[in-house]
Amino acid sequence: MKHHDWLTLAHAYVNVAELLALQDRFGDTAGIVAQSEHRLRDAGLPEQKARALASPDQNAIEAALLWLEHDSHHLVPYGSDEYPEILAELRGAPLMLFVNGKIDSLHLPSLAIIGSRNPTQGGLRNAVDFSRYLAKSGYTIVSGLAQGIDTAAHRGALDVKGRTVAFLGHGIDRVYPAQNYDLAHQIAETGALVTEYPLGAPPDKRHFPERNRLISGLALGTLVIEAARRSGSLITARLAAEQGREVFALPGSIHNPLSRGCHELIRQGAKLVETAADINTELAPLAGHLQQKLTESSDNKPLPLEADDDYLALRKILSHDPTSINELEDRSGLTIDQLSSMLLILELHGEVEALSGGRYALIA
After folding, report:
1. Residue-wise pLDDT tens digits, 220-231
2. Residue 341: its pLDDT value, please?
3. Contact, 179 vs 76, CB < 8 A?
4. Fewer CB within 10 Å, N or C, the chain?
5. pLDDT of residue 328
6. May I ask the CATH architecture of the domain 305-362?
């Protein structure tokens, strides 16, 4: 892979549809970037992009190549093995991803948690609690590094040493908002910061609605915690529904203006959730489809099982005969919430199979 060629395409803001058309005419990326502005325009590329592609900003490209020399910095182009398949299926899939962190975080079962930038204290607590529970259950928590619910969701995952991914609406060499500088670096250590925008791209207003499609697109489902009726969170939820993803909404007080967006989503068909176990129940079958990919590589495994008495006790009462979660609750002394989390982790590790009717069995 020639990073220079891909970076030239990135700085010209070429999209996937344009790339595929250019490849049909000129072959690989080296053939594309070798063309004159006239030939690129003749191939259907808009004038501004053709000019940027034919006369690239070499200083910007050199700066990006220097950034890529760091071990945790990556360029993931469309069509490469490292490009998340779940994003490749999107209409408007990004041409490439700039990643600071661990690429395997983009291939694990994930849940997006989003909401108001100015939430109530209750909303912040819910975001942290849901994120902690679901991160411990093996999900990567996806959000947008914004103030409020996004920040709480990222912190919740980090609290339990889980993985979290932040999609940015600007170049990977920036942090916005600035007060999340330390948080961004913590995310990159165990998860990933991701953007489709080239280095140096500012936090332009139009970038944030565009990046929202990637927040919802990478995740199996999107949970909205506190949102006004007119908000970016509702746009992201709509995108999630259009992408065929699950949409969850946390209800709230009828007197709280930030509950109205969630209530609107529920009226439109979003699943009302009261506990994180509700989300586990809905997503466990979908997460199971990714089990094979999780076990193919030692780098793509969920969080390690906790070696405590609860897991040992649960393994002893599970059998190859299907057992309902209510029976497991009676026999283990654990709550339904605790069992849902533990069973999902065992399922992701290939030890347990989830069956119809809320039953579980050991895998031979």
Report:
1. 999 999 999 888
2. 66
3. no
4. C
5. 87
6. Orthogonal Bundle (1.10)
